[in-house]
Amino acid sequence: MSSRRLSALLALAGALAAVPSSAATLPRLAGKDVRTGKFVALSHYVGKPVFVNFWGSWCEGCKTEARELASFEKAHRRQLAFIGVDTMDSRAGAKEFYARYDADYPSIWDPRGLIAGAWTLGTPTTLVFDRKHRFVMKIEGPATRAQLNAALNRATRP
């Protein structure tokens, strides 16, 4: 194995070790909406499954999934809540992204990547929580309609 590959593997192992193993040590999925400034939190959606998508206007994978997420959220608005976490981004970039991809769900502004860094290994990532806000599953990379539908089925199981 080359020293470059070994260094990359060691860096990845370190990053994985740094991810908290207990939900008690994770930062709350809460903060001010990047567009409105209103406070948004997972806890605001009592009794509803919640999808939390980590994204940035600079992220190519995020651009790939953006229209699908916006369409899915609109189609299932009565069944679930959808929150974005805009990470390592500018407010201007986020607002332009929302306009371009016709998204209207709230997004927590995470300009330094503190929330995203604790909950994910990168963007795009979608976390899925059930009605009691217990973690159900994670979709890493651009989410497809099939993955989102499967996640909704898992999140709404009795």
Give structural notes.
It is globular and about 40 Å long. By secondary structure, the chain is an alpha/beta fold. Helix content is about 40%, strand content about 20%. The longest helix is centred in the N-terminal third of the chain and has 16 residues, at about 5-20. A 5-stranded mixed sheet has the order 5-4-3-6-7. A two-stranded antiparallel ribbon has the order 1-2. The chain has a single domain (about 30-155), classed as 3-Layer(aba) Sandwich (Glutaredoxin), CATH 3.40.30.10. The protein has helices at about 5-20, 60-75, 90-100, 115-120, 145-155; strands at about 30, 40, 50-55, 80-85, 105-110, 125-130, 135-140.
Task: Summarize this structure briefly.
With about 160 residues, this protein is an alpha/beta fold.
Layout of helices and strands:
Blueprint: H1 3-18, E1 30-32, E2 39-41, E3 50-55, H2 60-75, E4 81-87, H3 91-101, E5 107-110, H4 114-119, E6 125-129, E7 135-140, H5 145-155
Parallel strand pairs: 3-4, 4-5
Antiparallel strand pairs: 1-2, 3-6, 6-7
Question: Segments where pLDDT lies below 50 for 5+ residues?
Answer: 2-22
In CATH terms, the superfamily is Glutaredoxin
The string of secondary-structure elements, in order, is HEEEHEHEHEEH
Number of strands: 7
Structural class: alpha/beta
> How big is the Rg?
16 Å
How far apart, in Å, are the first and last alpha carbons? 48 Å
Strand content bin: 15-25%
- The portion of residues assigned to helices is 25-40%
- Please, how many helices? 5
CATH class membership: Alpha Beta
